[in-house]
Structure formats: structure tokens, C-alpha cells
Amino acid sequence: MKKLRRSARIVDLTQYFLNHPQELIPLSFFSERYQTAKSSISEDIDIIHEMFVEEGIGGLYTVAGAAGGVKFIPSISNEKAKEELEKICEALSNGERLLTGGYLYMSDIIGDPAVLRQIGRMFASAFSQDEIDAIVTVETKGIPLAHATANYLNVPVVIVRRDSKVTEGSVVTINYISGSTKRIQTMSLAKRSMKEGANVLIIDDFMKAGGTIKGIIDLLNEFNANLKGIGVFVEAEGPSERLVENYISLARLEEVNEKEKQIKVTLGNFFDKER
């Protein structure tokens, strides 16, 4: 790349960091990229860091030493997260979304790129300090949420299947009991999809009793995976005891009146956890 003026260099640096979250980048890389002294690059990084922090989108953090560098860690401020979640809760509280069994129609929200970006930022902010190797979700509605989060954590997405597919190769399959219906169901995960002992984050779209997530945890135990966290888009008020603990939810389905088509969705426990 040709030598750039500082203003152009800062724009390119900003774009580079946004496209490479959680990646430790040596200053020498930028020095060679812009044909500029490391001291000048450090000044640019300080400017960008201040802007990122002020806007509540994350920060640039330096790791000293020969193998060090600078890393962009995405986040979202509580004020911005609350603003976005309140809009989501209002949209979810529309009684026309009510489906049989107390479920919510959420496909339009999950399919909105702007909303997905914010959801991904929230989950990434909640788990940014954990060393995540992969995000695990179960097909199908959890997939876009997992990818949105993975984009900010810069890790791959691993999909648990309800039915094994020939294209997956050899799989590990378990039976689990659904927490809400109490039925025995099956889920599987390709052996090649995840390395042994990986640090994983589970992301799911909806949780009642937590049977599906408990099944995923049991399946991950077959890979000796280390569970670093659980993120749920919407949790439902229901059983006094859930099958899983220590999860973070963005929204909570508190009240459902199928006869009157009334729904009440409030903020989840996202703000209850120290982040």
C-alpha cells in the first residue's frame, strides 16, 4: 500500500480493526502496510481507541512484548444495549406474534440484518473476555444469531443437527429429553466440526425449560469441550427450576394470554450480570 496521509491512514486502520475483531495484530504489520514509523501508528491507535470508547463500540488494547500487538475487542455500552433491547421487546410484545404453545414468531426480527448486528454485539460484549474457540447452536433459528455473534468474536460457528446428514461425515449422536414437552429427541454433531477440548459458547434463540441447551451440553461433553457461556435471545417465564444455569438472556417472555392474544416481553438478565 502506498504511503497515506494521517486522515486516510486512520480511516483504513479503523476499517481494518472492525473487520478483524479479537485478532492480535503486531504494530510492525501496520508500520509496513503504511510505510510509517511505529510511533505514528501508536498515536493513530490512541485516537481510534478514544473514538471507539466514546461511541461505546469497543476498544483497542495493546499487548506488550515481542509477540505482542494491538487487539480490537468489540463491546456495546449499557445505554445503547438498553435502547436497542427496549425496541426489540416492544416489537416482540405484539400480540399477533403469538403462536400455539406460547411461542413467539421471531423470524422477521432474527432476519433483520440491523437487529442481528446489535444482538451479535451484545452477546460478544457479554463474553468478550472469555477465550472462545467456537460458537455452538442448534438448527435452525439459532444459526443467524450464532453467526452474528461469531462475526464480533471472530470464531467459527458449529451447528448441532436434529438429524445427521451424509455430508457431515461421521457424527456423534445422543438422545435428550425436551424440557417443555418431555419427549425424547435426538441431536448430532459431526466429529470434524470441532477440535477436542475447545472452549465453546452456546447461542440459542428461545429457551423454556432449557432441555435443548442441556442436550447440547451433554453432546459437547462427548468432545471434552469447555463450556464458557450460554447466550439466549428470549427466555420464557415458566418452570421454577431450569435444566441449565448461568446463562445470559437478552429478553424475557413474562406473560402470554393466548385467548386475548396478549404478550408481555421485558428485558432479560443481560444487565444483571457483571460484564
UniProtKB/TrEMBL annotation:
Keywords: DNA-binding, Transcription, Transcription regulation
GO biological process terms on file: negative regulation of DNA-templated transcription; negative regulation of purine nucleobase metabolic process
Domain Bacterial purine repressor N-terminal, residue spans: 5-74
Gene3D superfamilies: 3.40.50.2020, Winged helix-like DNA-binding domain superfamily/Winged helix DNA-binding domain
Residues covered by the Phosphoribosyltransferase domain: 110-246
A single GO molecular function term of this UniProt record: DNA binding
InterPro entries assigned to the protein according to its UniProt record, in alphabetical order: PRTase-like, PRTase_dom, Pur/Pyrimidine_PRTase, PuR_N, PurR_Bsub, WH-like_DNA-bd_sf, WH_DNA-bd_sf
PANTHER family: HYPOXANTHINE/GUANINE PHOSPHORIBOSYLTRANSFERASE, PUR OPERON REPRESSOR
Subunit details: Homodimer.
Family per record: Belongs to the purine/pyrimidine phosphoribosyltransferase family. PurR subfamily.
Name recorded for this polypeptide: Purine operon repressor PurR
Biological source species: Tepidibacillus fermentans
